[in-house]
Structure formats: C-alpha cells, structure tokens
Amino acid sequence: MDVKQLLSDLAERQMPSAPPLRPGTVQRAHRRRAMVAAATSLAVVAGALGVWAGIGSLSRPRPVPPAERDASFSMIALDGTEATALAAHGDAAWAATDGKLYRVAGSEPERIGPFPDTYLGQPFEQRMQIDDLAANENGVWVAASPVGARCGESDAVAKDPCGDARWIPAGGAPQPARFFAGSRGGIAIGNGSTWVGGTTVMYKVTTDQRDAPVVAPRKGVRSIVGIASTLGQVFALVEPDDGRVDRALLSIEPNEGGGLGRLDLPGALIVRAGLGSLWVAAWHEGAAMLYQIHPERFSILRTIRLIESPGDAAKVLIKGLAFSGSTVYAAAARGDQGIVLAFDARTGTVETLRAAGVPVDIAAGHEALWVLHSRPARLARMTIPDPWDAHAPINDDERAEAVPERPGLEHPRITRIDRLEPSGDRLTIGFLGGDYPCGMLDHVELWEDRGRLMVLVVEGVRPTVRDGQWGCKSVGIGRTTTVEIPERLRGLEPADAAQD
Amino acid sequence: MEPMGLWPSLVVVEDVATGEPVEAGRIEGRRLELLYRAHATKAARTAYLLTGDAALADDLVQEAFVRLAGRFVDWRREDGFEPYLRRTIVNLFRTRLRRIERERERHRRVAASPVAAGGDLADLIAVRDALMRLSERQRAAVVLRYYEDLPEAEIADLIGCRPGTVKSLLSRAMDALRAELSR
Asked: Is A183 in contact with A197 (CB distance < 8 Å)?
C-alpha cells in the first residue's frame, strides 16, 4: 500500500487548487496589520519611557521561593482500600486498587474486567497485586505480581481493554516458572516495546505479543526499583549488589540487554521519562531531590532541590512523577501529609500544593493531573492549565553550543526557543537543535507583532546529506546564537513565534 | 529601491497574472496575495488531509494567512515561510482538539462532506474515511510523515509529543489503514 501516493491522490483530487483568497481574509489581515503597527508604536514609546514591564520576561528568571497553597483537587472515591498504581492518557485515568482496575473519565469510576481467574494454570486475581500501570494511545498495560502480567492492544478509551487472550505472563508463555519473577520493578512503554521490571531481571514484551524475553540479567543487581524508556533508550533504577551505594541508574542496551552505563544516585526512589529527559527523584541529605538526566549522554543535566526538611522534620518521600507542558509534578509524602511539588523546568521554580492525603502515585493526562490516594482508595483530579503549549529545556545553558547562521540549508523547519536574552542591540537565543548535520541553524527571523519582538528560529539540513538520512537524530542539543536586533525593534519584549 | 520588508527573492516580482514587473509601491499591498498564491494550495491540501473537509480546510488556510499577515515586515529569507505556515495550520487543527463540541460538529460535517467525482471515487472515499477513523494525533502523524515528508523529530515537535510516540502513532495508524483499506 503506497500511502504517500494515496494521500497525494486524495489531496489533489479534493483540493486541486486553493480556493481564492477571500475578501474578508484580506480585510481581517489589513486590520491585524493596523493593530500590529499601532501596538508597536505604543510599545516603542513605552519602552523609551522605561515603563515596559515585560522586557526580558523570557530571560532567565530569578529564583522564586517555594509557595505553598491548597490545590483545587476534586475527589473521586474508588471501591477498595489499598491503591497501588495509576496511569493516565488523554482524558482518562486508570487506577488499581486491591488487585482491581478502574477507569475514570468523568466523575464515576468504571470497573474494568474482571480479570481471568487463571492463566496457564497460574492463579490470577485472587492473589494478584497490580504493581504498575502504563497507558498510551494504544492501550493500557498492567504489571502484576506474582505472575507478571500485561494487557494492551486496545483503544485507550475502551471500557474493557483486556480480553482473556491478551493476558500473558511476563517471561513468555509457556515459560519455566523461574521467569515468573514478578513485576515490582514497574512497567514502561518505549522504543516500540513494553518493558516490565521483575525483581531482578527486566522483560521486553515484543511486538508479536507472544513472548517476553528477559533482556537484562540479574548480574550485579540485588533488585530493580523502577524502569523507564525514552528516545530509544531503556533505563533501570536498581539496588546494586556491590555495596558501594544504595541506588544506581543503569542504561541498558534495548536489544541485547547489556549494561551501557551506570550512574550512582544515593537515595533514589523512582525513575520516570518525560519532557525529553529522564528524571530521578531521591531523598538525599535532608532534601527531596530531582535529577534531570540527558538520556543519550547519560549524564546529569540538573540537580533540583525540590524541598528541604532538615533536622528532625519528617522525610519528604516522592511517590510518583508526572509531566505536562514544561512542568514536572512530584507527588510526595511528608510524614502523614501529602503534597504535590510542581517544578517548572523552564523557569526553575518550585510550587508546593497541599494534597488531600498521602499520595500513592501521580499521572498527567491531556488536561488533568491525577493523584491516587490509599486507605480508602480515592483519586484526586486537578485541571492543568494549557498543557499543550509549553516546552521544556533538556539541557543546561552552560553546555549549550554557540552556532552561527548558515542560510541555504535544506528541509527548513521551525525550532522552538528555550530562552531569549535581549541586551541592547543584541539578542541571544537559546534553543534545542538537532544533531549535526541533520539539524543546523539556518537563520533567525525577527519582526514585531502587537508590541512584541517575535523571534523565529529556522533550522535546516546540510545539503550534502543524502535523502533518507536527514532525519537521523531526534534528541535535542543545546545551542545558542546571537543576532543583531534591528533598531526599530529594540526594546520590545521578545517572544517565541513558534509558540505564539 | 527601498526594501519593502518582504524577503529578498520577492522584493522584485512579476505580477503573477500579467507577467509585468510590479512597482515597489504596490508590493506592500499585494504581499498577502503573493504569499497566498505561492503557498496556499499545498497548505490547503495538508489541511484537507487533516480535517477531511474541504470547506474546513479552506477555513483553516484563510485563518492561517490572517494570522501570518502582519508578521513579515522584517522577514529575511523565504525558506522559513512554508514550515511556519505548516506549523500554523497544525496549531489551528490542534487547537480544535480541545474544543470537543466543535470537533463533534466537524465529524458530522465530514460525514456529509462530498468527495469530488472521478474515476476512483470509491477508492477515494475509502481512503478519506479510513483517514478520518484514525485519532487526531495518528492522522496528523500520518499526514505530516507521508504527505509532508517530515522526519519524526519534527512531527513530534509539531504535534507536541516525543519522537518515540510518533513512531508508535505511525505504526498503529498504518496498521489501521491497512486493515481498513484491505476490506
């Protein structure tokens, strides 16, 4: 099936040419131009008088002390006591309590299942604990102990995603019992596969869904604490057996399962992938820490002290991480209280939200943040403001590579801007570029729009790169470039046109 | 000649209709039309594949040009315009995802939207219907990958997800399309 040809035929048949430019469009465009010109004049005058408050608002912000406030969560009661796992995708969340699975889209939870009693002779629901859940646009995946199970291949909004035939013990079927090592290491989706962390080994659920081989052996590992996958990489947070440190993060080769690298992270509690990075939450030296890790370089980009609890104060133990827009949400327990820490990766600020109890896990859907609580099991929902439009930096500024404009590259594309720092007649732009030669800076556009200096970064591909090779890398590389601001645009508030 | 703020290759242009050189003073007033003539057809086709509705595709393109009209006073190079227009189209389409009620209305319109008559009418209807049965993000991924020829990393940036998610979206979408079209 030649999809490209089919789409071209359909588009050309249905839209042989664009309809004429409508008179109304022209008039609206003229009005917009006039509005832009008027706003720009006002902005320039205001800037000259030094009263333009927004100048530099996208530059590196000053640290803001954490603020604590009550979050406007709405509560949804679940049937059960012990809540164990949570996942969200789109408008729905899935929560596990007492070995049962619920889907919540509105205010009423819907029971999914029941699960089959046995699979290949293994008793199932009666003594099953759901350790972890993962959801994407294709389905919901369940990691369950002691047999290590999964389900999926269903629409994420379906009420019953798990037919009997879709249950396969991790370790494959049929497999020797020794492979049924549980799934307490959690579950992750990425790199075209689903990954299940057993007690000491990691399973890879292959695309044919009839096998789940062990890909990461137990060598050097006392137990697996959590797993994550992003940008084609797979990682496991483990308790190593060499006694050097209590926790270490391993980078694992996704096909052969060999170890590619190790980062010692004392006090690490959980690992999650989000915002193009890997994030590890830890309790270390009296503070709840968040480590941002570059998945490809496998190095720590940022260490964030989310909240401190010195002296005899209760530890702050992070139970889950969720991502939306440019924000990392950490659900944490502080003694018998629950809090949600919101770290804005763009501004570097942390906000503390009071939760309605000790959280078990947290997940972010399309427009909602979900927090799971236990004893009794209940789910809290909070609306996330404008989650689509934000964009988070992957790198720290110090390592960003300064690059010149190279006009004339092929395959031009718009790149989102990470930071804008105007200084007199110069503007420094930080952005995440592609890998050379696939992603190079072609040029920067500057114009005014309603009193703002609109900035557009255009990247391209070196012309010598052959077709088919120019989309070779997807990971963001920190870059900066400095351009001269035309005289009439100086003093305007800079803004990323790609996000306007 | 005083630069008019359009990119250099269009500062001196011929009248598209007559082939006569256009005076510099008239270029300012004709900028939008020139841009439209150069880029609207491709944009409309992309918008059609995203929405499945020719009228709605036209709406999206007209709206995109209104939004872009005031932004080119200091434009330096032509190369960036097409991807910027594409991003605006995708953003407008994506914005609609949040407006569920409008989306439902659109589905009703698509169901009644005619397909142009031609030799392969049944095939065209099947392709369009199969495309419309995909989720919005799957459809956007398919159109941007197979019609616009964009790499996965750029698609990810456009639709606001990770590159790995684009792989998954494409894989599932292709499976669904194959299943639909092989019936």
From this structure: yes
Looking at per-residue pLDDT, the higher value among A70 and B20 belongs to A70
Tokens of B12: 């001196």
Of A472, A367, A65, A153, nearest to B179 (Cα)? A153
- Phi and psi angles of residue A196, each rounded to the nearest 5 degrees, phi first: -120, 130
Look up residue A181 and give its two tokens: 């090592």
Q: Are B64 and A490 in contact (CB under 8 A)?
A: no
Q: What is the CATH code for A67-383?
A: 2.130.10.10
| CATH code linked to domain B119-183 | 1.10.10.10
Mean pLDDT of all residues in A445-472: 70
Structure confidence by residue, pLDDT tens digits, A123-181? 554 456 777 888 776 667 777 665 444 444 322 222 233 333 344 444 333 332 223 34
Q: Which residue on chain B is closest to A275 by alpha carbon? A: B162
Shortest Cα distance from B154 to chain A (angstroms)? 7
Strands A248-252 and A378-383: unpaired
On chain B, the residues whose CB falls within 8 A of the CB of A17 are 41, 44
* Range(s) within chain B of domains with CATH label 1.10.10.10: 119-183
What is the Cα gyration radius of chain B?
19
A-chain CB neighbours of B110 within 8 Å are none
Picking from B45, B76, B142, the nearest residue to A15 by CB comes out as: B45
**A474:B153 CB<8 A:** yes
pTM: 0.50
Instruction: Give the pLDDT band (50/70/90) at residue A451.
Output: confident
User: CB–CB of B146 and A3 under 8 A?
Assistant: yes
